[in-house]
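in:
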């Protein structure tokens, strides 16, 4: 019999266990993790650097106002203090993204593991929880482990190889909780167009996701990476959160720092300066050559066309395409490649101040398993830490009142 059992040893689970034990050191706390080690997904965040939080994170950063109480209780400054209290110092970059001073995700996980060990938190790895029952206020996992309070922080369905396989949803459904539809988020987009020749090319662009009627449903700016299957990069992954079941097209403004008139003037001046020059060679002055190939093809022009052969209408069309290059979205690279899950357990079935279930007293949730998501840049980890801390404290305080 444990006082508190945490299912899932990821970011929110580790934060929950540590916070519960800090709230009352006498409580017995156990983390149950399906993988051989805790925190595997932490190591992959921020390209191995772990973007811990973002100084600009607040309620407006998320898909729901339900996060307001948690975010007000534990804003980014308090998350930075939390890590400082366990021996990890952080620094912010020019875009307000916060990283460990060591610049490596391993430091984040190590400090969490060391703190858990120091506090006497037990960790049971290589153990997947398949069922949980509640008898008279006591939870029992797979007929083996009992506890007075249970925190489910097993993540969503994104990156199952790192531990988030969606199994936590089944545990909560058994207690009568409902789920919203689930979709992969912060994920690459697949497109109808053949982009194999552009594989590996990167551009800075404005990205817009629009419905067939032209209505924009998401917008982002930043790096775009062309791949043989379609589009990747931070800006593309940000807009992917809005795709879901929508039939969309993706538009790239490949030259966001130049107005359309300036693009037209660039090509027109090049034609005056060197009319015999190939268009593809002239475009190299403002974009990667392979992107130039794509623009010429989309304009319906010969690949070997010279600047002298261009009509004014051709130049206008080229400028239009560069500022509004269209791709037909066919889907995403799925949960295996997604960073987060869109959707989750219905937030209105939980007290969002304590993260305790309104249906089952003593049952708490934290992290990605709830219907909370945000863009790239540390916002999703901010939620993981903050919700984990709130759930852990709430569970511990309910036992010590």
């Amino acid at each position: 019999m444990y006082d508190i059992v945490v299912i899932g040893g990821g970011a929110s689970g580790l934060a929950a266990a540590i916070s519960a034990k800090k709230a009352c050191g006498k409580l017995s706390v156990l983390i149950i993790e399906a993988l051989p080690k805790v925190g595997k997904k932490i190591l992959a965040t921020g390209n191995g650097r772990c973007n811990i939080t973002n100084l600009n994170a607040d309620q407006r950063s998320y898909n729901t106002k339900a996060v307001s109480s948690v975010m007000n209780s534990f804003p980014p400054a308090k998350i930075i203090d939390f890590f400082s209290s366990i021996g990890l110092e952080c620094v912010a970059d020019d875009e307000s993204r916060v990283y460990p001073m060591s610049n490596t995700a391993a430091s984040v996980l190590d400090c969490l593991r060391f703190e858990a060990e120091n506090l006497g938190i037990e960790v049971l790895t290589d153990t997947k929880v398949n069922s949980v029952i509640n008898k008279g206020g006591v939870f029992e996992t797979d007929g083996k482990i009992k506890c007075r309070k249970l925190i489910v922080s097993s993540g969503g369905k994104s990156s199952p190889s790192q531990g988030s396989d969606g199994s936590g949803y089944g545990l909560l459904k058994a207690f009568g909780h409902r789920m919203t539809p689930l979709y992969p988020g912060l994920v690459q987009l697949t497109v109808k167009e053949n982009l194999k020749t552009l594989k590996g090319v990167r551009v800075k662009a404005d990205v817009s996701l629009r419905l067939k009627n032209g209505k924009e449903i998401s917008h982002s700016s930043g790096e775009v990476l062309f791949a043989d299957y379609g589009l990747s990069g931070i800006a593309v992954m940000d807009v992917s959160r809005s795709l879901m079941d929508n039939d969309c097209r993706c538009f790239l403004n490949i030259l966001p720092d130049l107005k359309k008139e300036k693009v037209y003037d660039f090509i027109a001046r090049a034609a005056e300066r060197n009319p015999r020059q190939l268009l593809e060679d002239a475009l190299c002055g403002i974009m990667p050559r392979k992107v130039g190939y794509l623009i010429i093809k989309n304009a319906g022009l010969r690949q070997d066309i010279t600047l002298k052969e261009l009509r004014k209408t051709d130049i206008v069309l080229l400028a239009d395409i560069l500022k509004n290059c269209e791709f037909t979205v066919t889907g995403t690279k799925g949960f295996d490649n997604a960073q987060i899950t869109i959707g989750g357990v219905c937030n209105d079935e939980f007290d969002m101040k304590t993260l305790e279930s309104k249906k089952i007293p003593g049952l708490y949730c934290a992290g990605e398993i709830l219907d909370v998501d945000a863009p790239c840049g540390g916002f999703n980890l901010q939620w993981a830490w903050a919700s984990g801390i709130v759930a852990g404290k709430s569970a511990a305080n309910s036992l010590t009142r």
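note: The chain is about 30% helix and 25% strand.
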